[in-house]
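Could you help me review a protein record that somebody else here produced? What it holds is a sequence and that sequence's fold in token form. I need someone to confirm that the token line plausibly describes how this chain folds. Take the sequence as given and treat only the tokens as open to question. This is what I was given:
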Amino acid sequence: MTNTATFHAYFGYRDAVGALRWLEKAFGFETTMEVPDDKGGIMHAEMRYGGVAFTLFTDEEGYDRPARKGDTVGQGAYIAFDTQDEVDAVHATAVAAAPSRSGSRP
């Protein structure tokens, strides 16, 4: 039997527009679709990095975030790299692309 299942992830951001631009700059994600809402946010956006793809939107509802318990919230998503050097390079790029501490984060 052939498995035809696919996995999809989506994330809500308070500042989805800022999150899109940061994810592009920090990690090299490509925005493949961006549908604005009528309030200056994002109704639906799709991003891709190699074989990784996900959607995001502006969180206007203020969804509850899982509380941290110890070192984790018990769920999440991640991208794996082959070498520590790749991880270090992506981390350095992400830190350099971060908004200033005085500004709001996505």
Q: What stands out?
A: The chain is about 25% helix and 25% strand.
